[in-house]
Amino acid sequence: MAVFTPVTETDARALLADYTLGELRALRGIPSGIENTNYFLTTSQGEYVLTLFERLTREQLPFYIDLMTHLAEHGIPVPHPQATRDGRRLAELNGKPCTIATLLPGKCEMSPLPAHCEQVGATLARMHLAGRDFPAMQPNLLGLDWWRETEPVVAPYLDPAAAAMLRDEVAVQTAFAQTDVCRALPRGPAHCDLFRDNVLFAGTREAPVLGGFIDFYFAGCDTWLFDLAVCVNDWCIAHASGAFQPELAQAMLGAYDRVRPLTDGERDAWRTVLRSAALRFWMSRLRDFHLPRPAQTLTPHDPTHFERILRLRRDGDIFPLP
Ligand SMILES: Nc1ncnc2c1ncn2[C@@H]1O[C@H](COP(=O)(O)OP(=O)(O)O)[C@@H](O)[C@H]1O
Ligand SMILES: N[C@@H](CCOP(=O)(O)O)C(=O)O
């Protein structure tokens, strides 16, 4: 249950008094999610999501809130953080920073078809282009520096072969970061966690309409290719084996490339970046599994899923860029 900080109707009414979003009609805790407290908030004017931030600091939060605002105002379907009467998009409730953002239509699709992948690819490329003139810079906080720092922390929980693979992969990624190929990769604000559960679809399964991208709280400035690799490693695989499903990968990558043509440098880097995207989630899952935060109440995701994907990518299971 992702309600770590309970909110009563009285709390919500007091919060809404700072906004021009109308009167409270309904408040309902959202059970899914692992990071933040989320409530569906219905007012006389519309439907919103109230998020209370449990992990991110007040210094980090403006980047995410301003990025979502920027993207929403550039026509990208993302939650639009609403402003208080005095113009703040971050407020405070029950001792936690919070925001009220627009509710996006639809629900997530955990068994995607090529039509879903195509829309995710095209919208991701539009999002990258729309982020080009976003002025703030905050790195992907779970990027290379974090991998280097976390490798010795999680390695003791692994068997020797897995620990060796982890150490080698961090070394490979460290060396890659120093190359001209890596330095030249186009970059900017990236979602960095655009898994199946962070995209909503309305319409029908056969004729889906993308409702939007949610959960920007792992976003950061990184290569656009990394963002695409995170998506492909989740959306375009057979979940049991981690192997690519060619028709899904083709749909996503083709649609992305039609909106933002991929460069030759990105083609050269693809194999290594696909590996880095698997490494990132193997490591965060290892940390969450073996070193859960004190308040963590949810069953952590299975780390071996991304260990398997990383091994496959290292062994050459790569779907080429168009
Ligand atoms: N703006 C939104 N529009 C519609 N549903 C949302 C929105 N934000 C969150 N949700 C719902 O809340 C759930 C949990 O949100 P999420 O941001 O993924 O939480 P967490 O950051 O805790 O993982 C989502 O799966 C979705 O059902
Ligand atoms: N996508 C990550 C976990 C992050 O959880 P979210 O609910 O905030 O998207 C993973 O699968 O490890």
TrEMBL record:
PANTHER family this protein is in?
A: AMINOGLYCOSIDE PHOSPHOTRANSFERASE DOMAIN-CONTAINING PROTEIN, AMINOGLYCOSIDE PHOSPHOTRANSFERASE DOMAIN-CONTAINING PROTEIN-RELATED
Q: What is its EC number?
A: 2.7.1.39
Q: Which family does it belong to?
A: Belongs to the pseudomonas-type ThrB family.
| Name this protein carries in UniProt | Homoserine kinase
Please give the organism. Pigmentiphaga kullae
Question: Which lineage do the record's taxonomy fields give for this organism?
Answer: Bacteria, Pseudomonadati, Pseudomonadota, Betaproteobacteria, Burkholderiales
UniProt-listed GO biological process terms: threonine biosynthetic process
Gene Ontology MF: a single term: ATP binding
Pfam families named among the record's database cross-references: APH (PF01636)
Source organism superkingdom: Bacteria
The reactions it catalyses are: L-homoserine + ATP = O-phospho-L-homoserine + ADP + H(+)
Q: Which UniProt keywords apply?
A: Amino-acid biosynthesis, ATP-binding, Kinase, Nucleotide-binding, Threonine biosynthesis, Transferase
State the top-level EC class. Answer: transferase
The segment(s) forming the Aminoglycoside phosphotransferase domain are: 27-262
